[in-house]
Amino acid sequence: MGELLRDWRRTRGMSQLDLSIEAGVSARHLSFVETGRSRPSPELILRLAEQLEMPLAERNRMLLAGGYAPAYPSHELNDPELAPVRAAVRQILDGHSPYPALLIDRHWHLVEANPAGALFTAGAQPHLRTPPINVLRLSLHPDGMAPRILNLPEWRAHLLNRLRQQAAATNDPVLYDLHEELRGYPGGNGHAAPVNDAVSHVVVPLRYRHNDQALSFISTTTLFGTPLDVTVSGLAVEAFFPADPATTEMLHTLATS
């Protein structure tokens, strides 16, 4: 447990003194905890984990390493306990139609999507559409969406930066490995043709070619605000909105065709 605590403290760039002050414990006691000379209570472990902003799964891991039971449950999404979560997600996905919306887990695997989400999988090779579908791999792989992303260098840089920040925040080796994999895909050189519109000065849009139509999207991410379940804490809804009237018209046309 002490080794895990020390690793997370260093990941967050905190000294023992910094963490002890934030957690309301003496630096001496914290040092004893890290070296194994003192066994912390589960309450102290959770207080330290809270100050280190550790993911719920990692908090459970540190409790187990300290000899205690996990504090946070981890249900399958189909379990009865998560029925309200499934209902909320379905309402978001359905309500967002005819615009694409995807439910993803903490490793960017596609859990569910509304019908408009098929816009992004159309044309991708089968090995990228076989579950579990990783939406970042689907986006940047040359057999996936990448050939149809009109501003690929810009969008690729945005996704890699976001993934790098997420990996650093969670200290998750799966995300670090995914980042290294995606970095090796082509498409990082060159510059997208400049588009002088209002949205490009505010957010990074996704410019995507569907058939002969150039579509433009902006995206939002929705998280559960107070998760106490490991599974729920890793869920996110990625919703895409049309960034121009032509995209709006095209999506409504596709929905009714």
Q: What are the salient characteristics of this protein?
A:
2 domains, 12% strand, single chain, 47% helix, 434 Repressor (Amino-terminal Domain), alpha+beta, five-stranded antiparallel sheet, 257 residues, elongated, Beta-Lactamase, DNA binding, 13 helices
Structure report:
The protein is α+β, with helices and mostly antiparallel strands and about 260 residues long. The protein has two domains: about 1-65, Orthogonal Bundle (434 Repressor (Amino-terminal Domain)), CATH 1.10.260.40; about 80-255, Beta-Lactamase (2-Layer Sandwich), CATH 3.30.450.180. About 45% of the residues lie in helices and about 10% in strands. The protein is built from 13 helices and five strands. Strands 2-1-5-4-3 form a five-stranded antiparallel β-sheet. Helix 4 (about 40-50) runs antiparallel to helix 5 (about 55-65). The radius of gyration is 22 Å and the shape is elongated. It starts with a helix and ends with a helix. The mean pLDDT is about 95.
- The number of distinct β-strands equals 5
CATH fold-level topology of the largest domain: Beta-Lactamase
Main sheet overview: 5 strands, antiparallel
CATH architecture tag of the largest domain: 2-Layer Sandwich
Spell the H/E element sequence.
HHHHHHEEHHHHHEEHEH
- The count of helical stretches stands at 13
